[in-house]
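Hi W., the alpha-D-glucopyranose complex you wanted:
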Amino acid sequence: MLHPKPTAGDTTWFTHDRFGLFIHWGSYAAAARHEWVQKYEQIPGEQYRKYFEHFDPDLYNPREWARVAKEAGMKYFVITTKHHEGFCLWDSQYTDYKAPNSPAGCDLLTPMVEAFRGEGLRVGFYYSLIDWHHPHFTIDGVHPLANHPDAHQMNQSRDMKIYAQYMRDQVRELLTQFGEIDVLWFDFSYPQNNHNGLKGKGRDDWESEKLLDLVRELAPKAMVNNRLDLPDVSADMHTPEQYQPSEWIHHNGEPVVWEACQTLSGSWGYHRDEHTWKSPEQLLHMLIDTVSKGGNLLMNVGPTARGVFDDRAIAALKVYGDWMKWNARSIYGCSQAQYSAPTDTRYTQNYKKNRLYVHLLAYPFKHLHLPELAGEVEYAQFLHDASEVRFRETGAFEHAALESATPEGALTLSLPVLKLNVEVPVIELFLR
Ligand code: GLC
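Structure:
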């Protein structure tokens, strides 16, 4: 098993729990055309304000969100306390652009944190480094005003030092007013970006060292992600986004703790007309594949501006719940296995319990040969119903013409011809 080097934050719970819920919720939910709508449509602040003025989540019930997340098998959540648009979900004393001043009329974050903690989930705060609302955030290539003819001139009166202090003030609020926070998820740096001479931003702009020092001082156990543009400092986790890594993520040649973040459809924020919702098969494969490579999955929901998860999101989360109810043992406490899995399967392994989990991504016919496992397995069963799966080892076949021979060193599982009623069946092998 690969062992990432310890970092400053506490990652032990994280690498055990494996599965979390990302929530992207802000005034962009009202536009319902992606959380980047302000940038994509180059909407000036005065016009964009209509979403703030109409943000009225009258059906908001965070206890319901927390219940749904828990039922899906998720063990932590990460909420966008502030996304790029700059709108804050909590009652920050450093801005007026916050939920209490919108028709929502109150701090939306405190009840959310309480509700998720109440269901036993850990708490992560996403905080956008980018801010399209703050008057001192200089216009750059990712800003809605990037193509404004006076962009350079407007930047003359903007001072990133003031903005960097604003971020520290807000992060202090987030880390002192909501109890112990488990994850700080900063987003994101783009120092190489250059748009008509408007330079991208990185550690000097954010004053990332100071920001990180503040987090370590106020929340020494909290995990911090890798998007602060601090290449020489070990982040507690790496965060590949919207793709499935082909292997365990490495940084500077070393395996690291990592978390893939993914969307149910093609948008993070609520997007009414986006239709690339992933199939049940894809949803489950993503989770299994991620854990089989030693990573976590942070799956995202974008609640509507009325404050609910829409039907499509609920249906997708139910796919996880239905599967995790019976198969969670192959996810929690598991990591990349020490053996290599045959085609169309993924392995995960629980090293403490000495069990190996075979996930059947495509259902085979009758026999499944598991290389390297002859002599290694004491007992095998389907995980969902604990029904025995019989197996044989090298040389144990009787009739060569009727039975596929067990390759040297392999163990052959005998499977029912019909796939059982489980989206991805899992076989639990008790190792010797
Ligand atoms: C990107 C996007 C953002 C999203 C994030 C999640 O950086 O800017 O909208 O919040 O990815 O990883």
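Residues 24, 35-36, 187-188, 241, 261, 268 surround alpha-D-glucopyranose (CB under 6 Å).

W.
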